[in-house]
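ok so I'm stuck.
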Amino acid sequence: MRSRTYILLLALMLVTSCGEYQKILKSTDYDLKKTRAKEYFDAGKYVKSTELLEQIIPRYRATEEAEDLIWMDAQGYYGMKQYDMAGSVFKSYMEQYGYGKYIEEAYYMSAMCDYNISPRAELDQDNTKTAIEGFTIFISRYPNSSRVEECKKLINDLHERLVEKSYISAKLYYDMNQYKAAVVALSNSLKEYSETKYREEMMFLKLNSLYYYAVKSLAVKQKERYQATLDEYYSFMEEFPKSKYAKDVKKIYQETARVLKIQAPGDVANIQ
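replied:
not stuck anymore, here's the structure
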């Protein structure tokens, strides 16, 4: 019986609370809305807070309170993990209050919004690039900030996503047996991210792609393409003389040397 009474009281409180909130939404008392918006924000009720703020901010736009209200609005959306909206409001604050009291925090939070939106490596990385730019600008503007080291770590994390995205995209052409496109994509990725942890694998994939591209070429084109394979072989061996792909590399060289009718040098014999 007590349990049932408790549930009824709870339901009554919820209905009453919702009714009061609806009245505030419909009210023309903007001072009351402002007060309640702050109370809801402090209580972590960001949905109600931002709904009220969206109504009252236009009314207070030319007042001294506008800056605090816009800042509260941005933080409310961030608290709800609505990073698109939060980022938009943070950027709006930065445009309106270039010397505002929250401007340093706004630059950081704007970049954090893009960081939180940045997807896994397989997907489009526009937000990743925007976040890197945002953190870089923050470091440039506030080099003495206590958040500089954190921003640098976040930039490194984001950079790794770009590296992985580049690797995945390039490897996709190889997996689809589109060897010409694979060579171009792998070359571009290796050039842009020369220190990538995938470098050995990508250089091997490029060598293998050149080899298969030569194999599948018309006879009149094969010689120059096998020569390109040979050149890439030497580049690979110079950088990775004890590669885990050694056996496959040796086979590629032997077949390329046979087609080009050249003598296998001693370095090939030493590949284990």
